[in-house]
Structure formats: structure tokens, C-alpha cells
Amino acid sequence: MGAVLGTDELWQIVERERTGLADLLAGLSPGEWETPTRCGDWRVRDVAAHLSIGARSTYRWVLREFVRSRGNFDRMIHDSAVREARRPAGEIVADLRSIAGSRRYAPLTTPRESLLDVLVHGQDIALALGRTRAMPAEAARDAADRVWTMRVPPRPWPLPHARLVATDIAWTRGTGEEIRGPIAALLLLLTGRPEAAEAWTGRAGADVRER
Which fold has domain 7-201? Predict the structure, then answer.
């Protein structure tokens, strides 16, 4: 079971998350901007740059970048973020602030991807820096449900063969061995970040894999 956020509520959460993340980024040292994250080979600056792209992109931009990446969707996302990240940190923060209240979303996606992106990538940044960043349970549930049902764009992470049970909000999906934990930890697990899920609980995975 789960619940989908209303459109207005979803965008209000996205705005708060973007604004809070911009505040965090604005206070980073030059060295912290170069910190590696667990999101592939992206540094903090690459992840931050990626988050500012979706609301500014157009179908023409996507087509150009898709051709530039030789038809590889994952490469397009990766390379466009790395190119954007070459700009000064202040410009990246300003871009994120400028789109905080925008309700535009990337072509071929839905508003729920905007929520998913800022929640998960916000954790990528915070955890890489050793920071604690809260995640609203209702928002995490919506994002987790989106990952579970995602067909277009293609979900880049395999779903776990397990029964996932949130311990802090009503949400259950899947069959098999039971994995229990806070919905935020389950969202990170669903998006291919098992180590981050364990780090988020602060209990070496005990909350994520209670049996």
C-alpha cells in the first residue's frame, strides 16, 4: 500500500528540498565541492549541477544531448551533468535557487521524477559530506512508489527480490524475504544505494534488514 502526493503538495516539497539543498551547498568549502559521492563517479558538484538541469531543459536540448551521447540515455545524463559542473560553484547554487519554485520538469519524465531526484541526490550529497539531511516520510513514500512502478523513463536499478516494509509510514511492496526499515532507507535501497541506506539508519543496516 502507498499514497501518491497531490500535485501542489509535491511541488511544495520539491521547492523546500531544492532551497534547503542550495543553502547547504552555499556553505561548502572548495574542497567539499570536489568530494566523491556514491553516485557513480560524480562529485558533489556534478550531482548539484545535475539537479539544476531538469527544470531548465527542453525537448530540443534533450535531442541535442542525446545525439551528442550517441544515443546512450545514461551517458547523456552523466555527461551533461559533468559539463554543467565545470562552472563556478556560485553559479550552480544560483541555478538551483532559480528553479526552486519551478514546476517544469525534464522531457519524458513526470513531476514525480523531480521529487525523486532531489530526495535521492540530496542524500548523495549529504552522506558524501558526512551531513545529516532529513527526508519527509510522505515524500520518500511517493518517490519509492514511483521507483517501484517506473517504466518510462526506464528504471536504471533492479528491484530487490524481497518484501519491503516501511517501519515509519504505511508502505509495503514486493514478495519474498522481508526487509524492514524507514521509508527513506528503503528508497535509497531501491535506487541502488544499499550502503547509503545503511548509513542513513546509523545502525550498520540493522534497521534496513530486520527479520
Answer: Four Helix Bundle (Hemerythrin (Met), subunit A) (1.20.120)
